[in-house]
Amino acid sequence: MAKKGNRVQVILECTEHKASGMPGTSRYISTKNKKNTPDRLELKKYNPILKKMTIHKEIK
Fold this sequence. Notes:
Shape: elongated
Helix content: 10-25%
Order of helices and strands: EHEEE
Structural class: mainly beta
Radius of gyration: 14 Å
CATH topology: Rubrerythrin, domain 2
Strand order of the largest sheet: 2-1-4-3
């Protein structure tokens, strides 16, 4: 029998890269607990195209 969990996979996309208009995109896959964090996740991750740490927000 499978576990019933609240953890779901989410995709994080760079906000600065999207606004800059440069080709390509920086995305990460992570997991979050839906029960503890119902809001959209926002983490600082490394963007290899811009070569710096940027804010990545959860997308649908």
